[in-house]
Amino acid sequence: MKQNTKKSRKKKNAEDTTFYFRLKSRHDELKWLYMELYGNESMFAELCDNLYAFYESRNVDLKEVDLAREKSPDWYKKNDMLGMMFYIDNFAGNMKGVEEKLSYIEKCNVNYIHLMPFLDTVDGRSDGGYAVADFRKVKENLGTMDDLEHLTAACHKKHINVCMDFVMNHTSEDHEWAKRARAGEGEYMSRYFFFDNWTIPEQFERTVPQVFPTSAPGNFTWLPECNHYVMTTFYPYQWDLNYLNPRVFNEMMYNFLFLANKGIDIIRIDAVPYIWKELGTFCRNLRRVHTIVRMMRIISEIVCPSVLLLGEVVMEPEKVVPYFGTVDKPECHMLYNVTTMATTWHTVATRDVSLLKKQLDTVCSLPKEYVFLNYLRCHDDIGWGLDYDTLRTKGQEEVAHKRYLNDYFLGIAGDSNSRGELYNYDPVTKDARFCGTTASLCGIEKAGFEGNAAAMDKAISLDVMLHAYMFTQSGIPVLYSGDEIGQVNDYSYKEDPIKADDSRFIHRGPMHWDLAAQADDETTVEGKMFQRLSELENIRKREKVFMTNADIWTVETYDSSVLCIGRYYDGEKMYGLFNFSEYDKTAWINEEGIYEDLLTGKVRMAKGVDIPGYGFYWLKKL
Asked: Treating both helix axes as pointing N-terminal to C-terminal, what angle do 453-472 and 338-350 enclose, rounded to 10 degrees?
């Protein structure tokens, strides 16, 4: 008994040593940043005390992962990283259901799952789960915190990482803080932006853009029950948190660590650019945002160094770069490549790769340490935030071009086979964003409805080509659940009064497990999609040239519809060639040497490469 006690004490002393070593090595910077922002010694001391408390409560298995990943900090930059995102209820009903589907996730070659918002929200005031009423409670229909911890442990046994959304900018009006603020408690009112008259809100409104000018105009909401305005950047039921208050920062960091201790590997910081507010500014991308994110990074490195920070920053790649921080003072580990996604669909509609090539050149010129997450579709709409300065040189004006893109994906312009719906349409400006699944945007829905086998083959080819292109980009690819089997739009949302006004639910339909059961049957659409994507995923895992930190560049093809991406890593070189046109094309890349077609094994020259409509090649130099 005494021997066991000595072992336990020795182990605890070793763990304490690990914590205090991490704290000591980062303490001075963390304190400087905190004091420079808040100037509050006692709040900083409280924060440090709680960091130890959360470290101490972190379970043994997670601490072992922390130690292993500290030794291999580039663990997430390997060529086997493949993500999948889904809503828990749509995918498998609840968290226990997801656990039962882990074998399917493994079959998809996925080792990173993004569980879309699952924390407690109020029906009708949830914004898809981004209006959190309780950061420490799972929405009841999805399970409990114990279920989450059980699920993450099961995932870790299968070497699957788990990602979740951490909504930092705001809480729901149904959050306990908001309820107490509404009741007039000063301490809680100070956690938000409350004003008893319109003077200061009016000053904010002069400079702060509106996120949803048609569906939720303005940045403030009047609360008649307490005679105050409250800042609501997104929707009236989402109250912006006041990070000028150190209590807000501390408490949100405690929520962050609580969730990390449930086994979360990747924390997606929602709406990062918005979290700091100052009069006379856009309240976007302000300097203090980076102070907060840098402190988050330091805190995670002290308590849970295996956890990655994924920033949601919806801007061009070159403008999101500050959110990576610097080599010496890093912030986010990963960021989304949002505008490249939008430019990809622009390329589908125009059959012209020039803008996409320019954007990829920008991404490829960035340091290889920067890791982007690439995706074709996600839970959100497609916003046409393109490089219109470049498009204007081609005679494409913003308003007219947006209208063409929306008409194309509605299936009414440009010889399109797409199907989808507008989102946030403004009848005055005619501006809108777009919604739809990858398969429906590629023509699979239309071909299936018409029973047109030739059109279906063409649509599947486009879908697979786009995934191959995504796998070839710099960064980590993420699938949207259902895309692996070519799942099409779900129009049933219109029958639900809570969802009917939000067309984003067209691509948030439930997973069709009856169709997924056909994944091994290559005579079906589902089987063709699944098997072809599996082939690409296995090649990517096998070939080290797909490492995230490979050298990547684009190559001139002398055809406006054909994109060529080169990759080089550790002596190995390959070219990906992608035809964004439905017509057969020839790419004149004229590379010396002999190449192997990674899909067929055939040996060929990389000169005058003939590529069928919506076809592609992965050519590896021998």
From this structure: 140
- What tens digit of pLDDT does each residue of 445-482 get? 999 999 999 999 999 999 999 999 999 999 999 999 99
Copy the structure tokens of residue 216. Answer: 């939720």
- Active-site residue, selected from the candidate residues 66, 127, 312, 484: 312
Distances (CA, A) of 443 to 469, 494, 504, 509, 519: 18, 22, 18, 18, 19
| Each residue's pLDDT tens digit, 391-448 | 999 999 999 999 999 999 999 999 999 999 999 888 888 889 999 999 999 999 999 9
Q: Rounded distance, CA 577 to CA 558, Å?
A: 12
pLDDT value at 316 more than 70: yes
The CA-atom distances, in angstroms, between 433 and each of 160, 190, 242, 342, 483 are 33, 36, 30, 10, 20
240, 270, 331, 537: the catalytic one is 270
pLDDT score recorded for residue 327: 84
Q: Which tokens go with 9?
A: 């004490």
Rounded Cα distance, 16 and 472, in Å? 43
Tell me the pLDDT of the chain averaged across its residues. Answer: 95
List the structure tokens of 313: 């920053």
Q: What is the average pLDDT across 567-579?
A: 97
330: region left, alpha or beta (phi > 0 left; psi from -120 to 50 alpha): beta
pTM (predicted TM-score):
0.95
- SS3 string, 206-255, reads HHCCCCECCCECCCEEEECCCCEEEECCCCCCEEEECCCCHHHHHHHHHH
The pLDDT assigned to 4 comes to: 63
In 3D space, the residue among 529, 535, 533 whose CA is nearest the CA of residue 512 turns out to be 529
How far is it, in rounded angstroms, from Cα 236 to Cα 223? 10
Three-class SS of 382-445:
ECCCCCHHHHHCCCCCHHHHHHHHHHHHHCCCCCCCCCCEEECCCCCCCCCEEECCHHHHHCHH
Check the CA dihedral 431-435-438-441 and report its sign. Answer: negative
Model pLDDT, residue 13: 67
Round to the nearest angstrom and report the end-to-end CA distance of the chain. 63
pLDDT higher than 70, residue 11 = no
Largest Cα separation within the chain, whole Å, is 82
pLDDT > 90: percent of the chain: 90
Residue type present at position 559: D
DSSP 322-343: GGGB-SSSB--SEEE-HHHHHH
Residue 445 to residue 443: CA distance in whole angstroms:
5
Are 239 and 39 in contact, with CB atoms under 8 Å apart? no
How far apart are the C-alpha atoms of 178 and 189, rounded to whole Å?
A: 8
Percent helix, percent strand, percent coil in the chain, to nearest 5: 45, 20, 35
Please tell me the distance from the alpha carbon of residue 23 to that of residue 19, in angstroms, as a whole number.
6
Give me the pLDDT at residue 213, please. 84
Q: Let me know if 120 is a catalytic residue.
A: no
Question: What Rg value do the Cα atoms of the chain yield, rounded?
Answer: 25
Is there a catalytic annotation at residue 312?
A: yes
